[in-house]
Amino acid sequence: MSSTSTSPTTTLYILYNADASLIGKLNYGFRKLTASSKDKPACAACDITHGGLHLDETVEWKKVKEGLIAGDGGKGVELKQLHRDEVGGEVREYVESNKYRYPMVLMGEAAGGQGYKLVMDHEELAACNGNAQQFVLKLREKGVFGAGATKTGSL
Q1: Is the pTM of this model over 0.85?
Q2: Cα–Cα distance between 83 and 115 in angstroms, integer?
Q3: CA torsion, ordered 152, 149, 56, 80, to nearest 10 deg
Q4: 49-52 CB contacts, 8 Å cutoff, 24+ apart
Q5: Per-chain mean pLDDT for the chain
Q6: Contacts for 28-31 with beta carbons within 8 Å, 24 or more apart?
Q7: 4-32: b or e for each residue (b if 16 or more CB lie within 10 Å)?
């Protein structure tokens, strides 16, 4: 796949507070059912993208994700959704060196950019209450992208 001038220069990393393995999913389900509250969800990012305990992404999230990727006339963001055990390399080093707590959203610039930046921490994600559109509004407030970044019809 060749790079064009409209290729995203920014990658948005949604890092889940769960592991991708079967045991990880079971562990998350147990935490979600036994030790999760509205103020302290087991994984607020999971609530936004999957509606909590569902394995498939929600319809709302799929629409929002499409808008994030397409955004601003084709100059949207590259979106990477990773479980804890899928995070590696520089991203893992950045998270660990800053002692950030999962879940979170990071922004990373393309080669030659400014590196990584924490965009939303676990508390800010929890404040979205599982609402994908609220998540996008918070990203806009933080200047991650402009108002034209999503075209979901309801935003």
Answers
A1: no
A2: 20
A3: 170
A4: 49/14, 49/81, 49/132, 51/130, 52/130
A5: 83
A6: 29/53
A7: eeeebebbbbbbbbbbeeeebeeebeeeb
